[in-house]
Amino acid sequence: MESESELVPFPLLPTPIETNYRACTIPYRFPTDNPKKPTRTEIAWLDLFLNSIPSFKKRAESDPTVPDAHVRAEKFAQRYSEILEDMKKDPETHGGPPDCILLCRLREQVLRELGFRDIFKKVKDEENAKAISLFGDVVRLNDVIEDEGKRVESLIRGIFAGNIFDLGSAQLAEVFSKDGMSFLASCQNLVPRPWVIDDLETFKVKWSKKAWKKAVIFVDNSGADIILGILPFARELLRRGTQVILAANDLPSINDVTYPELIEIMSKLKDEKGQLMGVDTSKLLIANSGNDLPVIDLTAVSQELAYLASDADLVILEGMGRGIETNLYAQFKCDSLKIGMVKHPEVAQFLGGRLYDCVFKYNEVSS
Hints:
- Its cofactor is Mn(2+); Ni(2+).
- One of its GO terms (cellular component) is nucleus.
- The chain is globular.
- By secondary structure, it is of the alpha/beta class.
- It has two domains: 34-113, AF1104-like (Up-down Bundle), CATH 1.20.1700; 121-363, Uncharacterised protein PF01937, DUF89, domain 3 (Rossmann fold, 3-Layer(aba) Sandwich), CATH 3.40.50.10880.
- The protein is 47% helix and 11% strand.
- The strands form two sheets. Strands 1-9-8-7-2-3-6 form a seven-stranded mixed β-sheet, with helices on both faces.
- The model is unreliable at 175-180 (pLDDT under 50).
- The two termini are 39 Å apart.
């Protein structure tokens, strides 16, 4: 169900929000650029979204919930291609100039207008089932690490490994359609440190000294990402006495986990005592973020999340969409962590890193 209540600014953004917050990380254009002529960056990103159309069309064609899915998928491909080509001629068409939020918004709009609500549902369900079967093993592997610093690094590496499961990346969608990916192999095969943004050593020191009272985690993808990456990390925070709020999307978008799906996942992972592998979950809350895209503008979140998060002292934005393409440079009134894998060459180029490089950006706010 869609949220009916009005969206509000995330309460931990510094005020005034108008001058202190900009959602999109990569500037596609500058004030001096000709408003009627696309910039080189706009062209590159329009091409990136054009190149993703075949994988979205393929998913839409096989959606069993939509009558004439094959015909409608073709219409989606044509219509969205036309929108992007229009923007190449005149960036101010279709609500432009374009940025990553608008390009995602337009894609979802076209899909929904044609009756497609969740074209990645089948693959999400499959990956969730696989990841649930591996959850206990992953938790046990981390629990036997006695050194706290090494354990938190292992948990962070697990988040990166899980974040690879991203069907919004054309290259990764192709890999998954062929043979899937091994979570443990992904943990071992991360690009070597130092990563393109690497505050892990600082965070490990703070982890040993700080006790956060409440953490809000904006979660990303279904499958290994949420179940084998984020949940073992959230469980570790719970063990330390931190209250944890997991903020998930209101509506489906790519393979991002939604609020109802996350509730279902947790019901399958908790035991009859309501514990998560021996850890009490009474301080674990699942919130509807109010978002319906793979990126997020924090000036518009659900009132429920705003209420729950108002006194948090740690904000975590996970995934390339929420933590890199949007919000990488966002400041908060409390400590923050942006964590995600770079899965587009254009993002790697902007950051001066490598494809599949890792971003681990920690900002501490002095009390």
